[in-house]
Amino acid sequence: MPLEIVRNDITKMTVDAIVNAANESLLGGGGVDGAIHYAAGPELLAECKTLGGCKTGKAKITGGYNLPAKYVIHTVGPIYEDGKHGEKALLESCYRESLALAKEHNCETVAFPLISSGVYGYPKDQALKVAIQVISDFLLENEMKVYIVIFDKAAYKISEKLFSDIAEYIDDNYVDQHTDYCRESVRMNAPMQASVGLFEADLCECKAMSAEDDLDAKLKQIDESFSQMLLRKIDEKGMTDAECYKKANIDRKLFSKIRSDVHYKPSKPTAIAFAISLELTLSETEDMLKKAGFALSHSNKFDIIIEYFISKGNYNIFEINEALFAFDQSLLGA
Ligand code: APR
Predict the structure, then answer these.
(1) Are residues 62 and 40 part of one domain?
(2) CA–centroid distance, residue 114 to ligand 1 (Å)
(3) 287 and 229 in contact (C-beta within 8 Å)?
(4) What is the value of pTM for the model shown?
(5) Coil, helix or strand for 202?
(6) Mind listing the pLDDT tens digit for each residue in 144-174?
(7) Active-site residue, 33 included
């Protein structure tokens, strides 16, 4: 999964580079800045002193010293006033400049704290949105594993509105027994019936088959495997393979495994991640999951949150992962 939101102390992350939410002097401070300097040891400060400071929105790189990370990328976030003083653009620049530096130094893994969301007062949910947006745009064009490290769960929240919407949706649906799809036997007109006998299907609405080739196509789809359906849908949507797996927040290696093995059985989060990437409807999602041996169930919150987003037509996998994280569920992707 190229972008992951994790709870951890960034100084403990074994990645190529961790990003520090510094101030313009680069001479250390409190918060994550203080924690990183403390863990790295005095040599970090000694190197920072040679850098001549750093402008807000910019980034500079040093060694990691006693940290498990090889590098520290120091970036200076904006001090949040009211959101009308260019704070968002400066915060976006922090992520962009840090990622560019990481790429320049061939980093394969990078961990970010939520820049400016502490002492500098940037509202946490907006700070997270900016981070996710800039990082996911970068990951559409670049191969890298990026972590957003949330230090204290209390500090992490998605927007109140979204949170209460989802909580309500869970309440409404979690209690209800999910009525199984009506299994309809669709009686074809005589010529079709003679050739294929009774055709039983899981359909929400009872739709009689209109044309022979439609029926053939449907019959073929029943036999197709998960990966065959995935590749068919990628074609139908006019997507490239890369667009699909990047939007699904799935790494290239896993995708090529699925592509090369017609009987590959993905995990449920992976199957759902592809359904989201392809922007499938709920019944298409159910169909794709069934081919991987799964079903969406109202007896677990993960599935209900997925169903919430699909029913709202929101297929932004990073927003969905934010919500899953807020409800302590596993995240979408590999
Ligand atoms: N690991 C990960 N995240 C952490 C850690 C840690 N060990 N410690 C704090 N954080 C989180 C905070 O919870 C917050 O969400 O980092 C985020 C950024 O908070 P700050 O560290 O306060 O950084 P910022 O808001 O950008 O303010 C920068 O604070 O420490 C000073 O010298 C720094 O002047 C600069 C200012």
Answers:
(1) yes
(2) 7
(3) yes
(4) 0.72
(5) strand
(6) 999 999 887 665 666 667 777 877 887 777 7
(7) yes
